Amino acid sequence: MSLRQLLLRLPGYFGASAPPRRLWWSPSLDTIFSVVSWRGQSSRSPAHWNQVVSEAEKIVGYPTSFMSLRCLLSDELSNIAMQVRKLVGTQHPLLTTASQRSLAEITELIHTALLVHRGIVNLNELQSTDGPLKDMQFGNKIAILSGDFLLANACNGLALLQNTKVVELLASALMDLVQGVYHENSTSAKENRITDDIGISTWKEQTFLSHGALLAKSCQAAMELAKHDAEVQDMAFQYGKHMAMSHKINSDLQPFIKEKTSDSLTFNLNSAPVVLHQEFLGRDLWIKQIGEAQEKGRLDYAKLRETIKAGKGVTSAIDLCRYHGNKALEALESFPPSEARTALENIVFAVTRFS
């Protein structure tokens, strides 16, 4: 799932030149329930995630991967890029659009840099099967340098946008990411360690920092570049926030809902289904279940997974995923139908669809 793909569709959906529409109604409970019911039926329409992405790419106009060598090495595209640079400092509308594409690429650069940095191996936990120590050390150095290089390019691109509010938004998103990842690393559970005693509300706060802030604030920044008012910017922020939360919960659910799951497949003990399971079960019983699933000091994930699936954590996580999906759709409801809106909605449907 490309962050850039989402950001590029938002300006096209809201319209870079059209005046922003304002909310003029507050939905009643009956309205909300009817909308939820309609969404439950529509969520079955996208057959596959790849189909949704493919349809969205047609609206964007090109594949979502910024690492396409064909695009990077194309003489025609390079020539166009050089000509567009000459417009810097002018008021030509084309320049505004090229700033929005740059923002999308900057967001993906930051996201990719974070993933690269997360790939750093803890050398203190190396096992003989992981590889020679020198090779692992070299790999860590490459990961650090590569991630820093991507971040440096992202910062340079932000400066070229020449919009202080956008720079502030993306800088605060990066700060949120660092804070969220630091918390994850400080509380991450080893195989033989029991998870922290946190509720789902605390889990949401931590997850927003590490997974939702970048997309939410990038969506808001896209509306700022399109010169929409604060109300429309907030709608974009809400869409990005709840879309990211729904996507993260969907990812956490995969080890518990896949039809064919390897017995050796591990899962995060601080993931949404596990946190909800612990919340329903109570701390004492949860500690007991952890103990029963341990063999020779190692956690039997297959046994623990079946125990969690027998409780309420998985079904509650599915409901929570759909809740955030519905909140993301609510951010789009006040705007007229369009291909871009349909693409944004289909992304939510694909994430919240469970067989």
From TrEMBL:
Q: Which UniProt keywords apply?
A: Transferase
The UniProt entry, under InterPro entries, shows: Isoprenoid_synthase_dom_sf, Polyprenyl_synt
Provide an example Pfam family for this protein.
polyprenyl_synt
Q: Which domain of life is it from?
A: Eukaryota
Question: Residue span of the signal peptide, if any?
Answer: none
SUPFAM superfamilies hit by this protein: Terpenoid synthases
Q: Which family does it belong to?
A: Belongs to the FPP/GGPP synthase family.
Name this protein carries in UniProt: All trans-polyprenyl-diphosphate synthase PDSS2 isoform X3
Record gene name = PDSS2
